[in-house]
Amino acid sequence: MAKTLRTSGDYTIKAGPSGSAGDKIITLDAADVRIPGNLIVDGATTYVETTNLKIEDSIIILNKNNSGAVDIDAGIMIERGTSGNNAAIYWNEGDDVFKAVLTTSGHDTTSISDTTLAKIRVGAPAGDDDAATKGYVDTAISGSGSMSDFSLAGDTGTTQTVVDADTVTIAGSTNISTVASTADTITINLNQNLNNINSISNGSTNGALTLTANGTGSVVVNNILTFSSNASTPTATAITKLYSKTTSDQVTGVFFVNSAVDSGTEGELISKKKARALAIALGG
């Protein structure tokens, strides 16, 4: 039989000895407990034990009473039992970033200690601001897709730092190239000496390799400069070309050619000893 208990004022139920604050447990044993008005819980901890929790609120606020004066992390923690450390997706107040981590921190902490970063799996991006999957990035970089306005900035305000033992790799299947509608230039400025370089070559067919000193500086060879034997005489132009070729009279075998010298006729450098001998022979 249904019963109604009505009071014209506030109604208090205390479980405990007379004259003391309630310190015992009140149990409502029913199929459902319906509260038409608001439910206000003043306790510090509230436990809701349910198999399926349904919440109508479109926005859930965490850290509601946080004044911002202290560093408090906030998020969602997943208990993993014996499977390993708990998992958490949370806002790290100290770093000002969202994190997905594994952690040994408990649910009652205000500062989550990251054990390791956790993986997040997302779909392929549809726009520039979407998170990209590893597969999408791999495809774009390998050339099957496309990446526009891609740059590696050195001194444009953002510093890319490489320290000892780090490796920077720029890889291509057979070469590294740039393609643009107009002529483009790739400049590599090291500002340091190059050490342990065994070979510098030009991959273009019959392409020139240019060494240029700064201003009035010179290209200096501190040790031996070796010329491989040239099979034929190069075409004379307005610059001096120095090369090696087999000589018939055993002079030096080092030749030069310049279109502005002797009408571009090939000439051979001779040693001081050979020059003196020729001068004597010619009565000079």
Model description:
7% of the residues lie in helices and 12% in strands. The chain is low in regular secondary structure. Among the domains are: 44 residues, no CATH class; 50 residues, no CATH class.
Question: Mind sketching the topology for me?
Answer:
Blueprint: E1 74-78, E2 86-92, E3 97-103, E4 114-117, H1 134-142, E5 241-244, E6 254-257, E7 267-268, H2 272-281
Antiparallel strand pairs: 1-2, 2-3, 3-4, 5-6, 6-7
Provide tags for this entry.
single chain, 284 residues, little secondary structure, four-stranded antiparallel beta sheet, three-stranded antiparallel beta sheet, 2 helices, rod-shaped
Rg from alpha-carbon coordinates: 41 Å
Task: Return the average pLDDT rounded to an integer.
Answer: 80
How much of the sequence lies in strands comes to 5-15%
Structural class: little secondary structure
Major pleated sheet: 4 strands, antiparallel
Q: Distance N terminus to C terminus?
A: 144 Å
Q: What ranges have pLDDT less than 50 throughout 5 or more consecutive residues? A: 149-155, 171-186
Helix-strand topology string? EEEEHEEEH
